[in-house]
Design brief:
The protein has about 500 residues and is α+β, with helices and mostly antiparallel strands. It contains 15 helices and 18 strands. The strands form five sheets. Strands 1-2-3-7-6 form a five-stranded antiparallel sheet. A five-stranded parallel sheet has the order 15-14-16-17-18. Strand 14, helix 8 and strand 15 form a beta-alpha-beta unit. Helix 4 packs antiparallel against helix 5. The longest helix is centred in the first third of the chain and has 39 residues. It is globular.
Length: about 500
């Protein structure tokens, strides 16, 4: 009992202790109420300060728990659409970066380019999120850029997202129109084809960056999908996985400054790595096979303007020049059956690598027509060319056309100027739309030729963007690819033309 009393205390001690406990409990309760009030006040304050996507939720917690983990990305407050941006976030589980725009934004449907640069380079593929509420976004539109299909190494990456046009009238606009319930697909496509983009100016390049100096960590390597699994650009000097890479901003020329370059960052830090190099060895031996009569007599013709010419120059640097010929072609409507007949008779070309999209949207257009070719006009001309049956009957009837994907033009001073309209319309928005149309026309022909055995495999789309797009802004002359990029693309095209 003595032990019990010493542990419990006397009745008087118990009464005193009970009073003390009541006083302590009352004090603690008051403190908890005050703390809770302060917490609620803080939550309300944070909700007013933070953008919609990052607000602390006090309701619907079960729905929030179902969403994948996201990480906020800093917004560049000097961007031309900074006031439009509700939030930017990275979703590692979705391999995407999303931009949420406020309701009533000046630019609710922008044309965006996103690039991750670090141990390797990955370009973001943009689409409008049709269910923004699933991300907790409130009000406006959400655009997400995916790197899911890119070949990307594990490590830390610098993220840059830039706006090209406030009114995104390119491929994402077509996808948006197709999703409208009051328009059928045919009507929405026709509406997009006829859009007049002549007066559409790019956003001010000095302030087109949506993101601050933001870095993301990619925790798992992805081997890419489709053509993008064939090779990728990697740093020449590897850095540790957790080390922050250099920032790499998109190059541009200020208004009216032909000789200026901003920023002056290096574009030679990366080299291209192929997944499989066996074909390169085979190509080398094939190139040196002087006893092959087919190789010596048949040539591959590049049909197009200067971008085709520089690719043939690359073929000469790679010692394939004797197998390839450049055929001049600037305005696509001027290319006809006779163009292919002459090439066949003079050079014995049966394979043609075709690209006829630079001049129709370039600064030389006003001397040829009133403005750049609308998407509808360009589609009509290329479709007529692809479906010209006379071409496929030339010679022995073995002509094949390979329509090469477009080269993007950097934001040079002509593209950036707008007084009162652009001096050059070859922005990424227009180039991507032209490229989309060429691919669509080729696919239509392939579907049609399925019932005509003599036309099967005669027209193909040759996608080299996995090589050219990651360094789209690196052209030293603000037009043609750098020689290093050209040579990689030329090597790939040589393999497709000579080994298949």
């Amino acid at each position: 009992m003595m032990v019990t009393r010493s542990l419990i205390g006397t009745p008087k001690q118990i009464s005193s202790a009970s009073t003390s406990r009541k006083l302590l409990a009352s004090t603690l309760a008051l403190a908890m109420v005050a703390a809770l009030s302060l917490l609620i006040s803080d939550v309300e304050l944070i909700s007013r300060i933070l953008p919609a996507r990052l607000r602390i939720k006090t309701q619907n917690n079960s729905e929030d728990a179902k969403r994948p983990a996201t990480y906020p990305v800093e917004t560049n407050q000097s961007c031309t659409i900074a006031s439009d941006i509700s939030a930017i976030w990275h979703s590692p589980s979705d391999s995407s970066v999303c931009v949420s725009l406020l309701e009533g934004s000046r630019c609710p449907h922008p044309s965006l380019i996103g690039r991750l640069s670090g141990p390797s380079i990955a370009m973001l593929e943009w689409s409008m999120d049709t269910s923004p509420q699933d991300h907790g976004a409130e009000g406006g539109t959400v655009y997400c850029g995916s790197y899911q299909d890119e070949w990307i190494l594990e490590g830390t990456y610098f993220l840059e997202i830039v706006i090209i046009h406030c009114n995104g009238f390119g491929v994402t606009a077509l996808e948006r129109l197709k999703s409208k319930p009051d328009l059928n697909i045919s009507d929405s496509f026709e509406q997009w084809l006829q859009f007049n983009y002549t007066d559409e100016c790019v956003e001010e390049p000095a302030n087109n960056r949506l993101t601050g100096d933001s870095f993301l960590f990619i925790s798992k390597e992805s081997q890419g999908a489709g053509d993008r699994s064939k090779g990728h650009w990697v740093l020449k000097e590897r850095i540790p996985k957790n080390e922050t890479p250099q920032v790499w901003y998109t190059r541009y020329q200020p208004h009216g400054c032909e000789g200026c370059v901003v920023p002056t960052n290096s574009t030679h830090r990366y080299s291209f790595i192929w997944a499989d190099r066996k074909w390169i060895q085979k190509l080398s031996s094939f190139r040196n096979d002087t006893q092959n009569p087919t190789l010596q007599s048949n040539k591959v013709c590049f049909l197009g303007a200067s971008h085709s010419r520089v690719l043939v120059e690359s073929m000469h640097r790679l010692h394939f020049g004797h197998l390839f010929v450049w055929i001049w072609g600037n305005w696509p409507e001027e290319v006809n059956t006779g163009t292919f007949e002459v090439a066949y008779e003079v050079h014995n070309c049966t394979k043609f690598v075709v690209q006829l999209g630079q001049w129709p949207a370039s600064w030389v257009v006003p001397s040829h027509t009133d403005g750049p070719y609308s998407f509808g006009k360009y589609r009509s001309i290329i479709s007529k060319l692809v479906n010209n049956q006379e071409i496929y009957n030339i010679g022995r009837g073995d002509i094949k056309l390979f329509f090469r994907s477009f080269h993007h033009n950097p934001l040079g001073y002509r593209i950036n100027d707008c007084a009162p309209r652009p001096l050059d319309w070859r922005s990424p928005t227009v180039v991507d739309a032209y490229d989309y149309l060429v691919k669509e026309i080729v696919e239509e022909f392939q579907n049609m030729s399925g019932s005509s055995p003599g036309l099967q495999g005669r027209v193909q789309y040759l996608d080299t963007k996995f090589i050219t797009y990651p360094l789209w802004d690196a052209a030293e002359d603000w037009c043609h690819l750098n020689p290093e990029v050209q040579d990689v693309e030329a090597l790939y095209i040589a393999s497709r033309m000579l080994l298949e």
